[in-house]
Amino acid sequence: MTEAPEAHGIGGSADLPIPLELAISGAVAALVVSFTVLVVAWRLPRYTEPGGRAAPAWLDAAVRSSYFRGGLRALGLLLTAYTVACAVFGQNSLTNPFFGIVYVWWWVGLVFASALLGPVWKAISPLRTINAGIARLAGSDPDEGMLTYPEWLGYWPAALGLYAFVWLELAYRYPTELGSVRLWCAIYVGVMLVGGALFGNRFYERADPFEVYSSLIAKLSPWAVRERRLVLRSPLANLSTIEPRPGLVAVVAVLFGSTAFDSFAESSFWVQTYQDSPLSKGMLDNAALLTFCLTAGVLLGVGSALTSSGGEVRRELPRRYAHSIVPIVLAYIVAHYLTLFIDVGTQTLARASDPFGKGWDILGTASLEPSYWFSYHPSVLATVKVVAVVIGHVVAAVAAHDRAISLLARRDQITGQLPLLLVMIGFTAGGLYLLFNA
């Protein structure tokens, strides 16, 4: 999206209150110190039984209410109908709120909402609602499709769907042409509805890229459902409940790698590279995006597999540790897309009042203007980025450590974790460097 670089590129290395090298050194030191403290003070796994404290009875009753669930479904359908109207009848220009809805509210806003409230997309997904309606008309159960979803397939379809989306946004030549984005969304809806009809709601849990993304991030929220009751629990305890299914490593690699590439693509080095290259920018972007995602997956896989297995099959270890990358993904979404969400999200809300370019103000928001507050306080933004990245990596280290001591033999509980620690140090240093050299 052409507005996105301007919005989330604010706050470079020159705006840091300390030199970039010192910020990277401090972040790495914080990660190493955290690991040292964990090794000394955290010697037994704490999240093998996540538990949780019951939420207030009135809140649990409200959330479990059929009226509440039905209201969320209706909201999802309403937002979808509005988005479809913008896509079909709106103008082929960036003033059409359709682009902001897809690239900002859906892609970024869904992450923030899920981190605060839980699996938002699962609750409002129009695909689940449509599938349920079709199933009831046919006299079948929407949870049960005609076929059983293959366990070996796991999250692989979601990983491919997520890669398809980041490719559209970051590597496709025409990411802001109405026809291109509209076609992508139509293919997504078609595939999801066919999959739901074949495999039931299990398909959405494993294959819908946005539901999988939202549900993974939701594991960092304080909310969970246990024995059909709403409970409050530590985000780290929630995080430990992520199932290590096939394709999980690919999902987190795409999410982390694509965000890293988005930072890299704004760097002067990359701009100079494609200007001087005989290859087209599109070819280079495609190659670089794939390389970043593959590199993230390979580093996580190698770092995990090199830990002492303690009886685990080594090829299974990467997916056992993959949950620890989710806090890093959320951290980089905050660091990289915060200003995009605030500034372009506000623009989208303003444009949503006039979806067809008729001069309307149907929502009463047409006069809204972004404040660009971070533009005037770049050092604050730079500090927010560093803090988000450091917190994300420290939480990731805690999650990985808790999993490691449940897998490793006691004699390997220190040295066995070192390969994965080195990978996280590399992610920390490389991520900060990319963020502040964009």
UniProtKB/TrEMBL annotation:
Flavoprotein found in the keyword field: no
Keywords from the named record: Membrane, Transmembrane, Transmembrane helix
TM helices/strands, residue ranges: 22-44, 98-121, 153-175, 181-200, 287-309, 321-342, 376-398, 418-436
Domain of life the protein comes from: Bacteria
Protein's recorded name: Fenitrothion hydrolase
Species, as recorded: Nocardioides vastitatis
Higher taxonomy: Bacteria, Bacillati, Actinomycetota, Actinomycetes, Propionibacteriales
